Amino acid sequence: MAGPIAIAAGGTGGHVFPARAFAACLAARGEAAIAVTDRRGAAFAGDAPVHTIRAGPPRSLRGLMQLGLGIFDARKVLRSTRSRAVVGFGGYPSAPTVLAARWLGLATVLHEQNALLGRTNRVLARGRVKVAASYPGMGDRLVGNPVRPEIAALRDRPYTPPAPGEPLRLLVFGGSQGAHIFSEVLPEALGPLAGRVAVRQQCRAEDLDAARDAYRRHGVEADLEPFIEDMAGALGEAHLVIARAGASTVAELAAAGRPAIFAPYPHATDDHQSANAGAVIEAGGGWLLADRDFTPDRLRGLVETCLAEPERLSRAAAGARQFGRPGAADALVDFVLSEVRETGA
Q1: Does the reported pTM lie above 0.85?
Q2: How would you classify the pairing of strands 197-202 and 168-173?
Q3: Cα–Cα nearest to 291, from 249, 270, 262
Q4: What domains does the chain contain, in order, with CATH numbers?
């Protein structure tokens, strides 16, 4: 039996979710996969067998030492499992395995989820390493960003804006850590629209009580939770999403064909969230509110416009769907297997 494809990922959901979708697609094709990650990423590896290595951010002497030790850890894993290729999904936990793959001469592909190359991928994208991109104009092949199958399936459900007299169902989330500004601004922004909107919001645990009190004071129906387990179900019910613009968020909204108001996290590395949001907004998939403009009045104005002109929501849903690449996982598998064949592994 041919050796597995090694998946190098770890850290945040933005790296892990597409890695898991890729692994599921490999399994559906009858291809074996292993996950190579650090301790943080081990819990997110999905069904693939997990091999834990040492890794650390190379910003300190300790981090550099962990990186060096991790390369030897990863080399041992790749040789013992007879891995045929390595696919890195960014973040420093992927670096030791990608570097070990280059050392061993294995087919190596980096997947970049964002509209700008991340710092780790910029360093690793040298030599025979190929880059699979999620946005046009970068990398060796455009494949898109793999999304969870249950969210990709939403593409088959037509978008329907709120009917006359029906509340606008708002889904609000800020990535795996939530967004404090949403809990501060939304209750005041939506207060004058009480009865016309219904909110489901992922909220930081430390913000839950204050946000519930604020929504209650303003008379807004709101369901708040620190983590939304069934994101596919939540997206399927939503008329409009308010979110940050991490790579997985943008990819999942586009794959599902859901309109969104994007508020990019202003401190993201190289401001890549603004670039992510800008691409889907240019395709007509939503609206941008930078943090400096994320005020109760500006947000209320946008929501009121959507309530008054629901056809705008339908057009944005269509723009998002057109931008989405629901076949990204398959496209990435095709690219990786073509690289494996080229190296004769």
Answers
A1: yes
A2: parallel
A3: 262
A4: 5-146+327-343 (3.40.50.2000), 152-323 (3.40.50.2000)
